[in-house]
Design brief:
Blueprint: H1 2-17, E1 20-21, E2 26-33, E3 38-45, E4 52-57, E5 71-75, H2 84-87, H3 91-94, E6 101-105, H4 127-142, E7 152-157, H5 159-170, E8 177-181, H6 190-196, H7 204-212, E9 227-232, H8 241-260, E10 265-268, H9 276-295, E11 304-308, E12 312-315, E13 318-323, E14 330-336, E15 339-344, E16 346-351, E17 361-364, E18 367-370, E19 378-383, E20 401-408
Parallel strand pairs: 5-6, 5-7, 7-8, 8-9, 9-10
Antiparallel strand pairs: 1-2, 2-3, 3-4, 4-6, 11-14, 12-13, 13-16, 14-15, 15-20, 16-19, 17-18, 17-20
Length: 419
């Protein structure tokens, strides 16, 4: 009996230590409870070399209740990791009493919140793929979350401020709100280019389109319809060079949002350095706004405008696939059940959300198309010859062409766009 018991303990220990399989290439290696509310998970993913960790703060009473909670993805800055917001940022105390799950993932010491170009080879680290495609579904499966846009927000400091606004701009149908604290929200700034280096995006001289395809300033139009919060100091009174530079970025981002008519909280609070006391202040000031947004989330925009450099993308139920030789911008704009405008070059396939009755006949610029069994319409468009040179490279000729597609049908549904 002693032998059997010992053997059973060994087997059970083996199960406890074995990675727990999860969908999409993500595995749970271990879980360590650090306090009543705080747990650290060790995860294994093909998107990142080696194990990676994430800290999760649960609301008080989570284990004895059955309710679902909104989630804040709280992102760290450069030279920090998943522990930063709880060790230095006092996040556990600041969020005490709130009905909120806080998820704090690692994203490396620098060059985080993006999939690295790696000289064209791709592959790890793929921080965006890990955070967006793997971690969010993992969190929604493991915890009682409000697993939809209205129950999910993202915020971060410095490099994490870049991550928060970049993720929200590239995936606006995943997040209802985004906040940046001293965030690197405009990587067109010359000093940011010098600090970031070539590793994540490739050399700026030849790969500028890759830089700008992740830059919140360039993607600002995609943020329309989200609750946006931007907070920054100016580096005084001590002449903090880092905060002075990110202040310049934040002013540029704020002015871009103003130019586009996109509502946002602009907190340029003056004297303040690139340090934790100010980011703690920012989190305290932001949480009431986020909780109010979770209580009454804004609706999905009726008219969708979205720009991207990838040849294929999906947003708010719209799907776009571009066939062209080189990397460049394309934009889906003023997209509604009545039609849309598409810009770029080459040939395109656009799939609408579930606007129509299955099998409905719809006119698209005179052509009669039939909705698929899900009520989606598949529209093909031509934007002239595809540009053969990558956009924003020296001497490249990349004209942008535009087509307007009008949709007319007597069988339109009353439902809104679905993802």
């Amino acid at each position: 009996m002693r032998f059997v018991r010992a053997l059973l303990l060994v087997v059970l220990a083996g199960f406890a230590l074995a990675p727990e399989a999860h969908a999409d290439g993500l595995r749970l290696v271990s879980s360590q409870r650090l306090s009543d509310r705080l747990t650290e998970l060790t995860l294994r993913t093909d998107a990142v070399a080696g194990d990676t960790r994430v800290r999760v703060l649960l609301p008080a009473g989570y284990r004895t209740s059955h309710r679902r909670y909104p989630v804040l993805y709280l992102l760290h800055g450069a030279l920090n990791g998943e522990e930063a917001w709880t060790v230095q940022g006092d996040a556990e105390a600041i969020t005490a009493g709130l009905p909120l799950i806080v998820v704090m993932p690692d994203s490396g010491q620098g060059g985080g919140y993006t999939d690295w170009f790696n000289g064209g080879a791709g592959g790890p680290p793929q921080w965006e793929r890990y955070h967006i495609d793997q971690l969010i579904p993992f969190v929604d499966a493991r915890y009682r979350t409000i697993a939809r846009r209205g129950g999910r927000a993202v915020a971060g400091l410095s490099m994490g401020g870049f991550g928060a606004m970049s993720y929200a701009a590239r995936h606006p149908d995943l997040f209802v709100a985004a906040a940046a604290f001293s965030g690197a929200v405009d990587t067109n700034n010359p000093l940011d280019i010098a600090v970031t280096g070539d590793a994540p995006f490739g050399p700026r001289a030849t790969q500028e389109i890759r830089w700008r395809g992740r830059n919140p300033w360039d993607l600002a139009e995609n943020l329309r319809g989200l609750r946006l919060i931007v907070r920054t100091g100016d580096g005084e009174p001590v002449g903090d060079v880092v905060e002075t530079v990110v202040h310049q970025m934040n002013v540029a981002f704020h002015e871009r949002l103003q130019q586009l008519g996109i509502a946002h909280t602009w907190d340029d609070y003056g004297a303040g350095t690139h340090s934790w006391p100010y980011w703690q202040r920012d989190l305290r000031a932001t949480l009431p706004q986020l909780m109010a947004t979770f209580r009454r989330p804004p609706k999905v925009p009726r008219s969708v405008t979205f720009r991207a450099v990838e040849p294929a993308y999906a947003v708010y139920g719209w799907r776009v696939a571009m066939k062209r030789p080189a990397l460049e911008w394309s934009e889906l704009s003023r997209a509604t059940r009545r039609g849309f405008t598409l810009s770029g070059s080459g040939r395109a396939s656009v799939v609408t959300p579930r606007f129509f009755a299955p099998g409905a006949r719809v006119r698209a610029n005179g052509r009669v198309l039939r909705a698929d069994r899900h009520g989606r319409l598949h529209v093909r468009a031509t934007l002239g010859p595809g540009n053969r040179q990558q956009a924003l490279t020296p001497g490249a000729a990349t004209p942008v062409r535009r087509t307007v597609i009008q949709l007319r049908s007597a069988q339109l549904n009353n439902g809104s766009a679905g993802r």
